[in-house]
Amino acid sequence: MERFRIKCPRCFKSKFWKTSDKRLKCKSCRYIFIPKASLINISNKLLKQIIAEFILGHSTNVILGRVKISKHQLLKTLTLLRIAMTKDLPEVFEGIVEVDETYLGGQMKNKRIKEKFQIKAKNKGKKKLGGFGTVKQPVFGILCRKGKVFAKIVPGIEAKDLQPLIEKQVKRGSTICSDTWRGYTGLAAKGYVHRLVEHGKNEYSDKKGGHINGLEGFWGYLKRKLAAKGGIRKEKLSLYLGEYVWRYNHKSLLFKEQGKHLLNLWQKENHSLLKYRLLARKIKQNIHSSPILLTPIINILGSKN
């Protein structure tokens, strides 16, 4: 992995003096600062402990009791780990694959009275599409019989929402198993072998290998894990979805191998975010210091109608 090069937070130069208290002093602007090799200032030893506890599935409170770290730092670390997991996508599937959609979200009876009224007002006069209409979040999944799964939050479950994902993730010529939902109509015309299972007639296998039981098993695993969290915010659902997809795809790895792989993912994500932050600071500094960019703004503010 490419090593991150330390730069001055003010002038973005990379030449320094070392002070007696182990800080760095920029040779260009004389700014003194503590170098950060990470967005979260924790040691590798502490990070490895957090990753080990995280892979074991321990809650935040359990990790706080075992690792000496603040809750704020721990939550930031776990969020960055989940972002890295979400970006670790499986390769393109081929062979026999299963496709299916599901809905994630709490039951209507468990929602607050205020939320119930808001949902009813929002959906008044609209046709229900399933899963309490637009209350729950639709999620689409693809499972390869070789053991990998792909899942993504989608805006809807029609053909225009699902089939582009299938074309991107599944190689043409593969065999696709699905139920009889209209969103999968036309897959055979796009170069796939399409096998159907009619759940409406209590048919769950055509006895020739055509079924979606593997993906149904993953949906059950995902919903049990999310239910155990006691509810999560909708804006963070994609992170938790990415986490459990990653766990499912790497379940065959040993504990140490999972930890090593996740540590590499975290380092890559941390490195890219640091580069992005430095670039954003540099752009911001150029905007504030450039008279060419500021002149039109001054002219607009100073003009009179």
Would you mind describing this structure in some detail?
The protein has 305 residues and is of the alpha/beta class. It folds into 3 domains: 1-35, no CATH class; 42-87 and 253-305, no CATH class; 96-106 and 130-229, 2-Layer Sandwich (Nucleotidyltransferase, domain 5). 44% of the residues lie in helices and 12% in strands. The chain is built from 9 helices and 8 strands. The protein has helices at residues 44-55, 60-66, 71-87, 113-122, 159-169, 213-228, 237-249, 255-289, 291-302; strands at residues 16-18, 24-26, 32-33, 96-104, 137-144, 149-153, 175-178, 193-196. A 5-stranded mixed β-sheet has the order 6-5-4-7-8, with helices on both faces. 19% of the residues are buried.
Brief synopsis:
This protein is of the alpha/beta class and 305 residues long. The chain has helices at residues 44-55, 60-66, 71-87, 113-122, 159-169, 213-228, 237-249, 255-289, 291-302, and strands at 16-18, 24-26, 32-33, 96-104, 137-144, 149-153, 175-178, 193-196.
Ordered list of secondary-structure elements with their pairings:
Blueprint: E1 16-18, E2 24-26, E3 32-33, H1 44-55, H2 60-66, H3 71-87, E4 96-104, H4 113-122, E5 137-144, E6 149-153, H5 159-169, E7 175-178, E8 193-196, H6 213-228, H7 237-249, H8 255-289, H9 291-302
Parallel strand pairs: 4-7, 7-8
Antiparallel strand pairs: 1-2, 2-3, 4-5, 5-6
Report the structural category: alpha/beta
Main sheet strand line-up: 6-5-4-7-8
Helicity range: 40-55%
CATH topology of the largest domain, by name, is Nucleotidyltransferase, domain 5
Query: What's the Cα radius of gyration?
Result: 25 Å
Helical element count?
A: 9
Helix and strand run: EEEHHHEHEEHEEHHHH
Distance between the termini: 57 Å
Q: Give the amount of beta strand, in percent.
A: 5-15%
CATH architectural label of the largest domain: 2-Layer Sandwich
Low-confidence runs of at least 5 consecutive residues: 290-305
Overall 3D form: elongated
Number of domains: 3
- What is the mean pLDDT? 82
The biggest beta sheet is recorded as: 5 strands, mixed
Name given to the CATH homologous superfamily of the largest domain: Ribonuclease H-like superfamily/Ribonuclease H
Based on DSSP secondary structure assignment, what is the total number of beta strands? 8
The CATH first-level class of the largest domain comes to Alpha Beta
